[in-house]
């Protein structure tokens, strides 16, 4: 599953906002109890491993000009949750790269 979040920022700004907010990913996982591990493969690609509800979900966040693309490998057992996961990614992704509040 791929979800693109459009933006009008330079890559460095998006990268910094993702780094600053990646610890909040678990807050947006349905079910309320999730363990999230992130690792930057390069300056524009962050990989994620999310454990929740007895399932392991892996994915990447790719920073591109004009968009951030979340690529999620959703296990077949969770396929029915794709619309909910897509919605959560769209909402939380936008919040993660939004301008910080004063």
TrEMBL record:
<protein>
    <recommendedName>
        <fullName>Polyhydroxyalkanoic acid system protein</fullName>
    </recommendedName>
</protein>
<dbReference type="InterPro" id="IPR013433">
    <property type="entry name" value="PHA_gran_rgn"/>
</dbReference>
<dbReference type="Pfam" id="PF09650">
    <property type="entry name" value="PHA_gran_rgn"/>
</dbReference>
